[in-house]
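Example 4.3 (complexes with small molecules)
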Amino acid sequence: MSAVTYLARALDTPTNPFEDGPGALRAEEVALEVRDGTIVGRRALVPGEKAVATGEVVDLRHGVLLPGMVDTHVHFPQVRAIGGLGMPLLDWLERCALPEEARLADPGYAEEVADEFLDGLARAGTTTALVFGSHFASAVDALFERAERSGLRITAGQVLSDRMLRPELHTDPATAAAEGAALIERWHGAAGGRLRYAVTPRFSLSTSEAILRVCEELLHSRDDLWFTSHINENLREISTVAELFPTCQHYLDTYARHGLVGPRSVLAHNVIPGEDELRLLAASGAAVSHCPTSNAALGSGMFPLRRHLDAGVQVALGTDVGAGAGFSMLKEGLQAYYLQQLLGAEGVPLTPAHLLYLATGAGARALGLGEQVGDLGVGKQFDALWLVPPTGSTLDTALRHAPGDSDRLARIFVLGTPADVAATWVGGRLVAGHAPASTTHTP
Ligand code: GUN
Ligand code: ZN
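Answer. The structure with guanine bound is encoded below.
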């Protein structure tokens, strides 16, 4: 058994600040004892304490340790499409996203993109992600193969559509059923459970009833598969879906009537929801992935966080790369904060603790991983990112002068970037960056 003790200035949110208030922020200088990837001991250090630990010790105290980020909505085939500005959703899909997604028909290209994608997540400190895969089964295989090697916790699936995109991205029910079943067989539960399968119709606009029926069959072929899709992102999208599904009560009903909305479902965006939809989401235990930089970039709208919280809907954060502005969950947290400020009385005033929770614990719970990851408590996996801003950088200076812990966290969200992430671990394994060598301390 390998055991390492990490000494760190750690910030995390073991409880939900939307319920417990900003006191949910835990800021401590700690010794975290990690055995085979699990945190088995956690002790607050006494200031000035000298002989802090014995055995293998890694001293991270010149930086800040956060729980690994959890990205609940990110598109693997869109890494190279990041930065397409100036278009609403459907134009952006046609001009930026879909031409790039079509290139993943080439397995060699898909492998390169999969490596760039996983590397981008790890370098940003993201340790767990719910990933929108590719329309091509071979590219989904490439993603899972690379994810198995990279060490990240990835839930993903083949994206299914059979209309209104471009012909090379369309499938048919028989192919979708066969490819989906084979991918589930190969990847769901692989790598010790780090890899899981999510049934993924792109959105109801591009998915006929026949494909949604295949999704229903695939999802219910086992009792622990995941479901993800898009919902209520853009007015043109919503009105087209209403025309395509005249007998459905609302957008959510297009999924719900096929048994696709439950506690293992995550729906991205929901910028323009109806009250009935919020009630149904809450009752079913499904989560919403709020993607604030994407919503701003595409002009999709102002996410009504207050209405979600009032209805009791779980909300977590997603980058929505490539409509979103990169892999940084710190940036998403900051943009979520700005947006709620702009909403004035209708917005939710978010504290730094809320931002950290939305980027970590909320995502972990939305993905059913709340017992394993999301904070740095005993029993959790050592999934963490270590921020060490370059000496003299604005973040470095800001952290030195921050009057308190919550202020330090605010500065991290405002100023932190992937360039400040010195190391990222998943289950105690380094997946990006470099950590100091351990030293052996004898009693
Ligand atoms: N709706 C359907 N496909 C997409 C996508 O790729 N990105 C976003 N933001 N919304 C979508
Ligand atoms: Zn998306």
